[in-house]
Amino acid sequence: MGIIEETAATAETDFLLYTTTFCPYCVAAKRLLKDRGLTYQEINFDEDHSTRMAVVDATGHRTVPIVIDIRGEAPVFVGGFNETQSYLR
Which of 23, 13, 6 is nearest to 65 (CA)? Predict the structure, then answer.
């Protein structure tokens, strides 16, 4: 089981949101999810570099935010902010 699946298994939210502290797209993603009535667990990469490397390895996505939909049976990698906007339409 990978890091995303492990985190998703214990999360009680709709999404996992991997962020950094000074990221305007992360702020926009949080606002988008909140405005849609969706919950998220935020994991800040600034606090744990090894988590960032594991998530990048799992998704291939190097920029933040990294958005994962965990509402279904298995976590679904959505992408960044732009992909999340499209995904939620």
Answer: 23
DSSP secondary structure code for residue 12 in this structure: -
Residues of the chain with pLDDT under 70: 1
Are the beta carbons of 41 and 11 closer than 8 angstroms? yes
- C-alpha to C-alpha distance for 33 and 49, rounded to whole angstroms: 25
Q: What is the pTM of this model?
A: 0.95
Comparing C-alpha atoms, which of 52, 60, 62, 65 is closest to residue 7? Answer: 52
Q: Is the peptide bond before 24 cis (omega within 30 degrees of 0)?
A: no
45-54 burial string, b = 16+ CB within 10 Å, else e? Answer: beeeeeebee
pLDDT in tens, 64-74: 999 999 999 99
